[in-house]
Structures are given as C-alpha cells and as structure tokens.
Amino acid sequence: MAKSSGKAKPNPAPASGSPTTTASTSEPNRDSILRHPAEVQYAQELAILAQHDTNPKPESWNLSPQAVKTYILGGKVADHEITPKYVGNPRLVEIAIGTLLTDRALLLVGEPGTAKSWLSEHLAAAICGDSLLVVQGTAGTTEEQIRYSWNYALLLAEGPSPKALVPSPIYRAMMSGKIVRFEEISRVPSEIQDSLITILSEKMLAVPELGFHVSAKRGFNVIATANTRDRGVNEMSSALMRRFNRVQLPVPSDIETEVKIVRKRVAEIGTNLRLPAPPPPEELVRKIVQIFQELRRGQTIDGRQKIKPPSSVLSTAEAISLFGNSMALASHFGNGQVCESDVAAGLHGVVVKEDDRDQAVWIEYLENVMKKRGTEWRDFYQACRELV
Amino acid sequence: MARRSQNPSSSPPPPAPNRPNGMPLARILGIRHLSPAGACHLNDMLDAIRPTAVLVEGPADAIELVRHFSHKDIQPPIAILCYTKSRPIRSLLYPLAAYSPEWIALRWALKHKAEYQWIDLPASVFLEWHQVPRSSEEENQDEDDAEFDALDEFSDYGELDPPDESPHPAAVNETTLAYLNDPYTEIARLTGEADHETWWERHFEHTPDAASYFQQIDAFGVGLRSLQNLQPGDESLVREAYMRRCIHQVLQAGHRPEQVVVVCGAFHSSELIHELEPMSDQEWKTLPRTEVNVTLMPYSYRRLSSELGYGAGNHAPMYYQALYEEMKARDIERLSSRYASQISQAMRKNGLIRSSAEVIETVRLASSLAALQGSSVPCLRDLRDAAITCLGRGEREPIRAALKEIEIGTQVGRLPQDIGRTAIQDDFYHQIKDLHLLRYQKDELQILELDLRQNRTVKSREAAFRDLNRSTFLHRLRVLGIDFAHKQEVDQAHHTWKEIWHVQWTAECEIQLVECSLIADTIEIAAAFRLADQLATCRSIDQAAQIVEEAICCQLTDTFVNAQHHLQALAVESEDFVQLSKAITSLSHIIRYGNIRCIDTEDLKPLLSQLFLRSIFALHRACICDDTTAREQIHPAIIRIYDAVRLHADLIDTERWNAELDWIAPTDSLNSYLSGLAMALRLVQTSDEVLERQLSCRLSPATPADLTAGWFEGLMQFNREALFQRSTLWKQLDHFVTTLEEEDFRRCLVPLRRAFSSFSKGQTRRIVSCLLQASPQDAQSMLDIPEVSLSEEETKTLQEQLSDLNWDDLDLGM
Asked: Searching chain A, which residue's CA lies closest to the CA of residue B366?
C-alpha cells in the first residue's frame, strides 16, 4: 500500500534492495567508500555459502541457519575458507541464530566493545543480505523514527496519503521481511522503546491516519543491542524485555582469544584504511592484551598481585582502535613499523580517559607491575613512562 | 555409526588376538547402563522375544537380592552394595535407577517367571581381584584402585564400559592415543557436539525404534572395542570369559539360544560368541576370592548425578527419568514442554515469576537449537540453554536452583522393610521407627528440636522420654560417623534441656551404616566399641573429657566408667592449661546437667576438683606466652575456668584461684594482656587503693608504653560495668595519654585503639563522661566525640601517618 511511495523519496537506498543492488549503486567509486557494509565486504563468502548450501532455508532467509553459523564462526566450505567474524563461545551464536529462527527478537547485551553491533550487522547481512536497516538509538530518538513520519510538504499540500508517508527502517523491514537492527536500544527513553511492543508481539504496525496497518512479512525480525555499563542508559520495561531473547556477550576471558581477535581486526583495519605500516607484531599485541586484561580484572594474569582497576572501560574494541591509531602514527610519523613508542602514545590516552584518578592508577601499574617484569618489557615501560 | 572408520588406518593398534565375528551364544542385547532409551527398547524387545531366561551383567553373587525387585514397596533409585567381610572394608556399588536396562530386564523376568541370572564376575572375586597386586605392568591401574579401596563404584560402571587399561605406548601413534584415552571427547569433537553426553543423547537416547537402537549401539561397541588393545588376562577378557561360562551353563540347562536374552554393556556384546572359549572350571577355581556380604540399599538422585562425585555419565537423573517416562508413553516430543514448564514452576516457587509465553518461547528456541544440529528433538543441552536464554533472561544465576531441582532432583529410593538387611540395619530401622524418626529419613535438610525433659503429659514411659531417647540415638549415630544428624549449638538459655539437630538422610548414610555392621550388630554396641577405640588412642585430657561427655550422651554406662578412669589417669600428668580448661568445661557441663540423662555423676566431682587444682598450677606458666597465643587460646581458657569456678564454688578451692589471679595481675614479667585480664577478673574485689597503685605502676614512664597499652586492652575485656565505676582509673588513663611523648603515643595508639574498639556507642559515651569527671574542661567538644565519624580525608591522613610506624619494632616490644 504505502510501499511504493514510501521508499522512493526520502531514502535513496531501496527498501527491498538485495546486497547486490546496494553494491551496484556505489559501484563506480566503490574504492573510495570508507567502510562497506558487511554484505558487500564479504559478498564473496556469502555467495560461496549460498552456492554450497544444502540445508533447508527458512522462508525469506538467504542462507540456511547452519550456513549462517559457518559465516559467523568461520570454517571451510568446499575448499573455500570462510573467515571467522565472531571469535568466542560458539554456543552464543547458535542461540542467537536459534532465536531469529523463532519469531522472538534478539537482544545482544554486553559491556561496550564486546562486538554486539558487529555480530548484529553480520547476522543481518548473512540472513537477509541487508545490514543497512538500522535505527540508531539515542536519547533523542522519537517514535516517528521507529514507526513512520511524514513528508510535511506533501502532507500540507494533499493531506494524509500513502505518498506523504515516510517509512522508518522498521516499517521497511516489515514490508520486505528483513532483519532490522536497533542499535543501543537502552539509550532510547523507556516510553519510546515501548512503541516496539506491538510491533514485536503482533508483527503489525497500525497507521491510524490512513486507516490501514502494515503486517510484517515472514523473515522480519529485530536485533537490538544494549550496553550494560555506560552512562545515560535507560531501563527496559519488562513488557518489552519479555519479547526479546537476551544473549549476553562476554568480555574475552583468556589472552589467546583476545589476541586472536585483536590481530584479526587490526589486519583488516590496516587494509581497509590503506595504512602502509604492516600489522603490529604478535609480541606487542600480546603485551597490550595482557595489560588490558590485567587492568580489567584488577589483578595480574598469574593472580599474584592485585591492581587497582581504572574507571574507564577497556574493551577489546579499544585495543583494536589503539593499534589502528598506532599503525597510522607509525606509517606517517614513525619508521613504518609499529613499535612500542607508537603504541605507548595511544595507550596512555586509552587508560586515562575521563578521570584524573586513572592517572594515578596507570602510574601505579607502570611502577608496581610493568617495571618489575624484566627485560622484554623494559623498552615498553620506558616508552610509557616518558609520556606520563 | 561405527567409529572404527575414524581409526587411522596407517598405524592401527595391533588387532586384538581374537577379534571375533562369530555366532552369538544367545540373543545378545548391548546396552549402556542408565540409559532411558535402552530401558524402554529393552522392554519392547523382551515382550517380542519372550525369553525363557534373562541374563544380566552384574555381580553373580547378588542373585539372591533380585527376587525383591518385584516387591511392591521397592522404589528406585536403589543400589546393590557388596562389601568384604574382613577389614579394611572394600565395597562395590551398583546403582540402579528406574531407567536402568538391568532393572527393566530383571523385573521383566520376575513378572514373566523367566529364569534370571547375573552373569558378571561375583563381587567376591572382583573385590579380591582389585586387592591382590598383579604383574608390574599393571601398576598404573593399581594406583587407581587405591581410591577404589574405601567405597567406590565399579570402575567401569555407568559408562559404556570404557577402556580403563592404559594402552601399550609402543604400538600406538598419537591420534590413536587420543582415542584410547578418551574416545568419548574425541567423538563429540568430530560430530560438532559440545560434549559426549550431548552426542550420546542425540544419537542414542532419542532413537524411536528398538531394532535400530540395538543395531547402532552394537556397532558402537564393536568400534570402541577395536580401539583397544586388550592383553590376555585383562579384566575385561576375564569377565567376558565368565559371562560365556554362565551363558553356556544356561544353555546346557535346556534353554534354547533364541529364547535366552543377554543384557550387557555393548562393549562386551561382540565377545559373547561360540567361537570363544568360556572360562573353564580350572580357571574358575584359580580366581582369587574373598568372603563378601551383599545387600540392597536405597540410593538418591543427588548421589547418582555427578554432583556428589559419582560420575556415572548420569549428570541429570531427574531429566533422564522424565525422558524415560515420555519415551515409554511414545511421546518424546512432550519432553521439552514438560522440562520448560517444570523449570518455570520451580522458579515461581522461588518467587521468580515467568509467564507462559516465556515457557513457550523456551520450547521453541530449544527446537530451533536442535534443528541447527539437524535433529528434531532437543536434548538436555538445548533445553537448558533455551531455558537460560528465555527464562533466565540471558543469565544462568536466576535459574540455577530450578535447573538443579529439575535435572538432578532430590528423589531417594525406598526399600521394603527387612530385605537383604544386615543386623545393624535392622536395629537401626527398628529404632528409627520406635523413635518416630521415619519422616526425617529424607534427602533434604530438616530441623529436629528435642526437649530432653520428661514429658509428664503422656502415660507411657517410652513416650515420656522419647526425645531423650532420640537424642541418645542420634548421639550414637554421630559417634559412629553416620552423617544423619548434626547437632547445632543452642543459645545459653535453653542449654540444659534443648537440642537442635539438622537431620538429612543421604544414600551415604546407608553406606556408613552398613560399614558399621563390621563393628557390631547393634547401634548401641557399635557405638560403645567405637568409643572404646577412641579412648584407647586418646592421649590428651580434653579429648578424654569429651569422650566422657559423649559416653553420657550415648547412655553407655560402662564406657562412661572406663572413660572416667582414663581421664583420671591422664589428669595426674596433664600440664596443658588450655586442654585442662576444656576438660573442666566438659565435666562442669556433665555435673550440672548429667541428671537429665539419668546418669550418676557423683564420681566426677572429685575429678573436677583435681582438674581445677592442676589448672591453677598450670596457669602461671601459661601466662608466659606471646600475644597471639594469649589472645586466641589462654584468654578463652581463663574465661572457661572462671565460669566453672562461679558454678562449682563447692568443689573448688576458690581461695587459691583468687590468690593466683591476684598474683598474676601485678606481675609484669608475664604477658601484659593476660595480667590485665586477671586484673579485670578480680576488679570487683580490688580496693581503690590497690587499683590505684597498680595503675600508677603500670603507667609509670619506666614501663614501655606498648606494654601498658596491652595491659589496658586485657583490662577492658571483662566486666566493663565495674570499670565505669572506677573514676581513679579514668583519671590516671587520661593523665597517661596526655603526657605521652609523640613517639610513644604512636606506639600506644594501636593497642589502645584495639582496647576501646569493641565498646558500643553507649559505652563510649560513658567513657567520655568518666573522662569528663577526670578533666572537666572542654566539656562540649568531648561530648561530641563519640558522634563523630572520620571523614574520608582524615582517614587518609591517618593511614599515611600510621604507615610510618615501624610495626616490627612494635611487635618486639610486646
């Protein structure tokens, strides 16, 4: 009904577009795009998976659940290597996919930087080939952004009509049977959040002004993400909560996993941003991850010494951006190789972010822990010490 | 199904010498112990075959017990317990749940009047076998058996008879080694399942069709077998030879092979064939054996689950029970809904309300998780993960208790009266019935309150003293180490006649009870023996006093008299003040309250006097000690004796005790804390003048300041009311503190602070008012002091300043 008029005007990205259409619109200057959505970046892997997918596909899914799992966790499909997108407990991914197979919505919860949005983007890309239907939740998100708004010029000129209606990403996902992502849902005021309730339980969105309603096509679902530990976060009403399956994404608990994640992502960023510096050596990554884990846990890895943890969040994502930053530093102002001084520069800023007291925490860590670690850590300690 | 194909063909282990592929001796039905599907399908198979003889893997000498299986009052889980008649007791445990194929098979045989038999090696052989050291290459296994010694289960029971022999290292490469050590984990890994149990459940327990179930499990058994390299003389081979012997015997008795069903671990099923020799009479005679008792005992799901260490691959007995029931009703699809709604009910019971919508979502999520693994019926892991996601809302914590209740359960098996019981069990059950304690025999913590006084409202003597008799009985059990009841400390007010016990019956209690049958045939005699044993090895006086007390609680008169003599003998020698004080407390307690237990305690009184005298002599030396000992050991000991002195003034040379305290209080060569304490104990009788002299002596500048502070700390420990009455004391303390040098002040600060820290706010106010009398200036500011709490900044500066203190130095000074 409202479909044709709705999608045409306000948004150039067609609502029913497949990854290929999205890709083709930006094809001419594809290389100049800073970051491609997952379905474009991994189009080849998705195509391979689709080609060799023998398991039954749920209606309006591009891939079977098993193939989606392989896409997320990595694996081998007919001699083609699928890179892992999420490193961590595979069971969590299974539960997430399992949830999307039912008509329950999925809520990914976790501390900042635990790959919530990352996972939701890739799930959407793999399941419906479109990760661009996004509502970014903020304190200023309004009900119109969740439901629909109006093209006021048309509305004034012609009165309410399907043509004057501007659909939200959720509206469009319902029409096309796709997955819509709701980022940072807990930042949206509770009363606004609650406008999702009917959409989630009855899969229907009423447009009273025009006297009709939109019923969601099969395949429609919502992946929301929410922070557990951050400022400006609103409680979710239990009525809404009940409509989600919560999956808690943990902070990586062992060094090996985290080193793996950081190295993989840093290499990707390097290629993506065309930084001439090669990715940092594993030794250095391991050191940084160790520092991050120790500060996060409040004790050294061997459990022998207690450390005061800083107030700032030290997530894996922070470690990744720290290395991205150092690679930029190294390639433009350094010797082209990421070395300890490049990382040290950023590290101080990561740990001492908002609170002056963290400065003391950092110095204490340097003096009490790092300084006593022996020769391998000597240079790094010196580099850090100079900046304090 | 056969994992044999996974076995790397490049260097397989040398094929077992007699890899058979022959004619089965009878209808062999391989199973896994404790398998719901196996139990269900076995029942169908038996109905279809209608055998004339049913042979089941299990200890041959327990055959007598089987006839009870059809008793109407028997309720699994139960276990067959076999234990040696000689000490040390070694025992074997065969648990049986309602879903054990063995249980099903034997019940079927009983119901249809078929012949039945256990066909595994008798426990008498098994227990001896594990006792006798064998050739050196099997040393490894003997080490494992060390644990086996006390109370362990069949080493291979529960799992599908896993390989418990260590492989011969020369013959196998690394991959094979992985299979051999832990083929189960390897299988789970290869199939993409998280663990072996999940794999097992998905591939075997959900099989709807009996024929394919047995085919699969046979193939699996053969595959598993091919991974092993059994040597002649190995346990498994000997057991199988014995099984063949049993089968041959049954066949010779005239049963037709197709009418004989053999139920055994699938691991063995391929070996029960015509081509292999049965055990000969000669071999049978040479097997080592010992005398054993076999008995049935109730068992519990909690123990059956791995929670209490019995890892028989049955981590969720209650869930398997449900699986069995649904499978039997041919409605396995119903299991998910049953599980989810039970979880939500258990959560509601704990006050966590979850809606039906969420229960429905749990079932749906579980189904889609199962679908991801390509199966239509969710297994336990899918259900649990779905329940955590939907009902726990992503967290495990809120639903942990419910999971435990629904997956493991608290069920305990029941046995009819008087079957297969040892004499001591009979005695126990009679008493528990006579004492009306039957309802406490549950695997759940219950509280039992006893009033030891005679109940004058009832007629019979038995009823009047029931609680006292219960107490005696529970004390006897405690002496015997039967973990049925735990006595709780009660508050002083009801000390004389009230006892509170936490009672919980677990399957272990039954085992402990059975163990006691080796000591004697009744609880009473066994307890007396046990106490006599303890007495014989007892070397310290407080232990002896405790045994005296226990003998009284257990109403064992002879033991009581013996223990009393023993105590007396020890008392002559004893010089340990702390032990003496404990013995005195025990005796004092007995003398005061002994009559409630109807025991004559007159003879103890001279003993108490004797102990008192000894303790007074020991006190002096005890007061020479370091601060920690003083605080933690001597201080409570002194208070114990002080209490006893007040209660037994007639038995004690009170004068001597007081004189000793009076001597300790001023002596500054002793521990200053204890001197202070002695002063406090004598405070009421001390005149102002003496106190003043004491104080000025202790507070004089020649005395090290920290010793003074320690003395004060001791003084503050007792009778504070009396302290508030002494204005001299506060005046002098005030003077002492205000005239301290900076350095000394710091050293005193900690002990002084410690001395006053235990005062309540009201008491602090009284101290302030005492001090006000001493120095009336600054009245207002002083009054505010107790109300002030330190600000954050002050705490910080305080900590900094205190950290300058040289603590080592401080300790040396004391």
From this structure: A98
Under an 8 A CB cutoff, do B365 and A98 touch? yes
* Per-residue pLDDT tens digits for A33-43: 888 899 998 99
Torsion of CA B32, B38, B39, B41, to 10 degrees: -160
User: Which of B418, B419, B437, B537 has its CA nearest to residue B477?
Assistant: B437
Residue of A nearest to B368 (CA): A98
* A-chain residues near B390 (CB < 8 A): 104, 245
User: Would you state the torsion angle of the CA atoms of residues B203, B206, B208, B210, taken in this order, to the nearest 10 degrees?
Assistant: 60
Which chain B residue's Cα is nearest to A95? B369
Using CA coordinates, name the residue in chain A closest to B356.
A242
Q: Is A65 on the interface with B (CB under 8 A)?
A: yes
Is the CB of residue B591 less than 8 Å away from at least one CB of chain A? no
Query: Which two three-digit tokens encode residue A368?
Result: 């009490």
Instruction: Compute CA distances B412 → B80, B129, B226, B243, B301, whole Å.
Output: 15, 32, 39, 32, 6
N-term to C-term CA, chain A: 63
> Which residues of chain A make contact with B357, given a CB cutoff of 8 A?
242
Closest CA to B490 of B504, B471, B463, B505: B471
Q: Are A141 and A135 in contact (CB under 8 A)?
A: yes
Q: How far apart are CA B399 and CA B402, in angstroms?
A: 5
Is B192 in the A-facing interface, judged by CB distances under 8 Å? Answer: no
Interface confidence, given as ipTM, is 0.74
E strands, B300-452, in order: 446-451
Calculate how close chain B gets to A284, using CA atoms only, in Å.
33
Q: Which residues of chain A have a CB within 8 Å of the CB of B796?
A: none
Question: Which of A55, A102, A107 faces B365 most closely, judged by CB atoms?
Answer: A102
> What is the rounded distance in angstroms from the CA atom of residue B402 to the CA atom of residue B379?
18
Highest mean pLDDT among B127-131, B328-332, B728-732: B328-332
- Give me the residues paired with residue B617 across strands: none
- Cis peptide preceding B88, ω within 30 of 0: yes
Burial (Cβ within 10 Å: 0-12, 13-18, ≥19) of residue B41: buried
C-alpha span between B207 and B201 (Å, rounded):
9
Quick: pLDDT tens for A288-322.
888 888 888 877 877 777 777 887 778 888 888 88
**Is B372 within 8 Å of A66 when comparing Cβ atoms?**
yes
Helix ranges (DSSP H) in B716-788? 720-725, 727-738, 742-757, 761-774, 779-784
Of A65, A109, A246, Cβ closest to residue B372: A65
- For residue B597, what pLDDT band results from cuts at 50, 70 and 90? confident
Q: How far apart are CA B802 and CA B744, in angstroms?
A: 13
Q: Which residues of B touch A99 (CB under 8 A)?
A: 365, 368, 389
Express each pLDDT in B334-343 by its tens digit: 999 999 999 9
Among candidate residues B358, B411, B314, B421, the one with its CA nearest the CA of residue B38: B314
Per-residue CA distances from B643 to B181, B540, B584, B654 (Å) = 63, 22, 10, 12
CB of B731 less than 8 A from some CB of A = no
- CA–CA min distance B192, chain A (Å): 11
Query: In chain B, which residue's Cα lies nearest the Cα of A66?
Result: B372
Determine, for residues A245 and B372 on separate chains, whether the beta-carbon distance falls below 8 Å: no
Crossing angle for the helix pair B380-390 and A90-101, to the nearest 10 degrees:
70
Sign of CA dihedral A291, A296, A302, A307: positive
- Give which of B554, B601, B536, B602 is closest to B544, Cα–Cα: B536
Tell how strand B27-31 and strand B115-120 pair up: unpaired
Whether pTM > 0.90 for this model: the answer is no
B808: number of Cβ within 10 Å: 8
- Gyration radius from chain B CA atoms: 36
